[in-house]
UniProtKB/TrEMBL annotation:
A Pfam entry, by short name: Lipoxygenase
Domain of life: Eukaryota
Species name: Candidula unifasciata
GO molecular function, one term: metal ion binding
Protein name: Lipoxygenase domain-containing protein
Keywords, in A-Z order: Dioxygenase, Metal-binding, Oxidoreductase
Domain called Lipoxygenase: residue spans: 1-58
Coiled-coil zones: none
SUPFAM superfamilies recorded: Lipoxigenase
Amino acid sequence: GVPGNGHITTNDQLTQILTSIIYSCSVAHAAANFPQYEEYGFPLKYPAMLRGKPPTET
């Protein structure tokens, strides 16, 4: 919910609300609905440079 009886009173509150909406509609949706390990778990599909260890389990 929106703090302050449903009224947005500061730019920080607006920023937090919009950030949450954008995250939920993009990153969270993609993480929940697209098979990332199945696509990138195969070594030939790895990016050219890895900054961490590759995934080992689903």
